[in-house]
Amino acid sequence: MNTAYPGEPWRLAGEAYVSVWTVPLSALPRVSDVVTPHTVGGRAVVVTAWIDYTPPGQLSYHELLAVVAVRHGRSPAGSITEIWVDSETSLRGGRALWGIPKELATFHLDRTGDVTVSAATPSEWIASATFVPKGPSGPATRARFSVIQSVGGLPLVSPVLARVRPRPASATWTVNPDGPLGYLAGRRPRVSVHLRDARLLFGTR
Length: 205
Description:
Blueprint: E1 10-24, E2 39-40, E3 43-53, E4 61-69, E5 77-85, H1 88-98, E6 103-104, E7 106-110, E8 115-120, E9 125-133, E10 141-151, E11 154-175, E12 191-202
Parallel strand pairs: 5-6, 5-10
Antiparallel strand pairs: 1-3, 1-12, 2-3, 3-4, 4-5, 7-8, 8-9, 9-11, 10-11, 11-12
């Protein structure tokens, strides 16, 4: 155990509010040269997620991230292009263990009625979103995928195991057009979902 952050794998718990987008390849601002984006109809697939990590996971913090789907054999994989957290422990660990470019931000999460979330840095507002869950949650579902980041100019592939209870949702996003997620401003997600009772095992055992 590192005194600054847990060693891998991280065991995390919480819930997530996820949206899936398709955007022109030319709109992607920061995809590493060590990966190749997966395309659908000539457009890149971007997954954004607001995540509230809570006990019994090892760490408790909030997170906003954008992941570009990338090619990795037949297995689902993504490369994180933008990510913010409100935990210095998470920031240090994510950068050191997996090359994840975490930055600090302030989050606001309101669950009174529809779920409203927002994130900002000291210098700029990033984005906000309102999620409206639709219907009951589905049964617990397991997923396995990889996160691929550039470390020293080479791809670092980190496995992720997840168990979630998905619930359909609609989402309305407002994105700062001049901010780091500006390539999503004015677009609508293709689909959104609320992932309840999430359990994640992130990294190599």
